[in-house]
Amino acid sequence: MTQLEKARQGVITEAMRQVAEAEKVEPEFICREAAAGRMVIPANINHLKGKLRPIGIGRSITTKINANLGASPLASDETGELKKLNVALKYGADTVMDLSTGGDVDHCRCTLIENSPAPLGTVPLYEMIINKPIEELTYDDILDTCRKQARQGVDFFTIHAGVLKKHLPKIEKRLAGIVSRGGSLLACWMTYHNRENPFFEIFDELCGIMREYDVSFSLGDGLRPGCLADATDEAQIAELHTLAELTQRAWEKGCQVIVEGPGHIPFDQIERNMKMQTELCRGAPFYVLGPLVTDVAPGYDHITSAIGATAAAYYGAAFLCYVTPREHLGLPDEEDVRQGVMATRIAAHAADVALGLGEARKWDDQLSAARARLDWTSHLELAMDPETARRMHQEKRLPDTDHCTMCGKEWCSVRISKKLRESGFGR
Asked: Which residue range is the domain that position 386 belongs to?
């Protein structure tokens, strides 16, 4: 049985216990949330036999973040992707996705699964069409590839089953068209064959495979907006309604479900988007890319997305996909991965503080107390990225460490305040 099915029977699994311990809540709470479909524990039964440390994804616990990895036909290789995996995990990614479209994708995927304690996701469609035109994709290709990847231990699949043939005319008004790789490929297949989306047609068979290995659905938004002008348009909303229907179908088959969302959204539309998904999909965890709140900052899109990600997590998202500085420009390197993970972690933590989740605020207060004491050792140890904080501090460090080099000894407000406190503020 899947984690969902066991939760429905009131069975507390070892994975649920581990999630409860990490979130500092009772296992019974995790079980209830999982049973309702409001929490997903992506834990393939075969990955659980290896290094996997189960995590929970849901609104009632801390916000989780994903880092995308993967080789392309033009860049990177298995060794490079393994290095990126280690960077992503070091800086706090909760999950990773292998989006490889080139090289020995099977070997790369198995290596990442073997070395990843974090849940690993894929987009199976990518492997199906390596060295093969999308028009030649068959139903057997879909089922065989998904079955193989499930057997290998993949924890969640992005499945673009919500893009339907009737949605495609709605794209004509768009500025950027279809920006999802999976969405655009399937649009080509449907147009060529004049048939419905094959993933939609064999969705029940896919559920059977995913239930067998407890692979979680990440229902892909193939029509997500790729620019502000296309946000919250007819195509996006039509697909979201289909994703809501597929969520119910997957739940009925005993499968865990995450629902993917946009994309590029003006800041003032984020709340509406998050609440719409929560209502339509009955609380299934929402997974968003950013969202990016402006289109004009290539090279800085990790910042653009972090601005939107905090709002998204506050208003309804449970799962944030990182965006690196190289988004829209090229395949990220190790430093891009680090910056993308850190920007998204900051966004997630800011939302958790605002929502009062877990012990998020306690961490801030502990660091602030150390800062007020001018306790540099604790201050740096408590930093989200201690390595960077320590390096920056030591670059300008002076022998007298009861102040920083920004203000100097006589101008340091923290030092002055500390002395005032010690004197009782003149009482």
From this structure: 369-422
